[in-house]
């Protein structure tokens, strides 16, 4: 039987592989040039305070009809217009807006600017000015407590009056208007209502 001679080594075309290597090196150089042409990496601002209030309670306790064809900003949950995503609950929404992806979309890095001594001193001065030392005294506290107690007593009195008014209305509704007195006397009672008033 005649077979294939497989005892010799495989021969490679060295010129072909050298040409492939040259082409690959040329592509890598071009990509490196394109990267340099883009300029330096983006310099992001340091992290800073939010200047708006996060609204977590506006839709608390409300129901909403959810349809699969609704746009993202009308779906159930919290919509982030910066990242264009919907987060299902408030805890995850807070994590999202404090997270790296959202902060990068806003153009901030996750690093905080280091405060200088002058900035800290200015901040303390601003807080001292904002806090008025004469805002709280014991007299003010006593007056506020008295006022609160009076308001509570007024609320209790109004509640009692409302209850009495409701009872009067119910009694007036249950009282029959046209009862024949002869018929009532013959049956042995004064009315069909209850005896409690």
UniProtKB/TrEMBL annotation:
Query: Which stretches make up the U1-type domain?
Result: 75-109
InterPro entries named among the record's database cross-references: Matrin/U1-like-C_Znf_C2H2, Snu23, Znf_C2H2_sf, Znf_C2H2_type
Gene Ontology CC, one term: spliceosomal complex
For this chain's UniProt record, which GO biological process terms are given? Answer: mRNA splicing, via spliceosome
Compositional bias (Basic and acidic residues) spans?
7-39, 142-156, 167-176
Task: Answer whether the UniProt record assigns the keyword Manganese to this protein.
Answer: no
Q: Where is this region: Disordered?
A: 1-49, 128-197
Q: Name one Pfam family in it.
A: zf-met
User: Keyword Zinc on this protein?
Assistant: yes
| Keyword list, A-Z | Metal-binding, Nucleus, Zinc, Zinc-finger
Write the protein's name.
Zinc finger matrin-type protein 2
Q: Which GO terms describe its molecular function?
A: nucleic acid binding; zinc ion binding
Q: Where is the composition biased (Gly residues)?
A: 188-197
Positions with biased composition (Basic residues): 157-166
């Amino acid at each position: 039987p005649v077979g294939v001679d497989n005892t010799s080594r495989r021969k490679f075309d060295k010129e072909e592989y050298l040409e492939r290597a040259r082409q690959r090196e040329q592509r890598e150089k071009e990509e490196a040039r394109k990267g340099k042409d883009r300029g330096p990496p983006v310099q992001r601002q340091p992290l800073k305070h939010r200047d708006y209030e996060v609204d977590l309670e506006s839709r608390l306790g409300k129901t909403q009809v959810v349809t699969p064809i609704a746009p993202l900003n009308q779906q159930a949950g919290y919509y982030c217009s910066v990242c264009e995503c919907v987060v299902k609950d408030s805890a995850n929404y807070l994590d999202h807006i404090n997270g790296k992806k959202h902060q990068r979309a806003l153009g901030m890095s996750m690093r905080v600017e280091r405060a200088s001594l002058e900035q800290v001193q200015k901040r303390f001065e601003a807080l001292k000015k904002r806090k008025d030392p004469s805002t709280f005294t014991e007299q003010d506290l006593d007056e506020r407590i008295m006022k609160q107690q009076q308001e509570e007593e007024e609320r209790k009195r109004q509640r009692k009056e409302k209850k009495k008014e409701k009872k009067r209305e119910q009694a007036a509704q249950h009282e029959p208007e046209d009862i024949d007195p002869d018929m009532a006397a013959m049956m042995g009672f004064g009315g069909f209502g209850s005896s409690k008033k």
